[in-house]
Design brief:
Largest sheet: 3 strands, antiparallel
Radius of gyration: 13 Å
Helix content: 10-25%
Number of strands: 3
Structural class: alpha+beta
Strand content: over 45%
Order of helices and strands: EHEE
């Protein structure tokens, strides 16, 4: 499992956050499963992307 965590401080546009998420998702295998968590509070936004690798047996 891989975890990508990013904290944006200050006023950040949603387009910039979308750009970060899209860049992370481009690095992954399209068959991998991922879970995206987003939290927002005064002055910061927190993003966590957990990726479970696809395993072939």
């Amino acid at each position: 499992m891989k975890t990508f965590v990013k904290t944006f401080r200050g006023k950040i546009s949603h387009e910039r956050i979308d750009t970060y998420v899209n860049l992370v998702l481009k690095t992954l295998d399209p068959d991998d499963y991922y879970d995206l968590e987003f939290q927002q509070d005064d002055g910061w936004q927190f993003i966590r992307i957990e990726v479970w690798d696809r395993v072939l047996h």
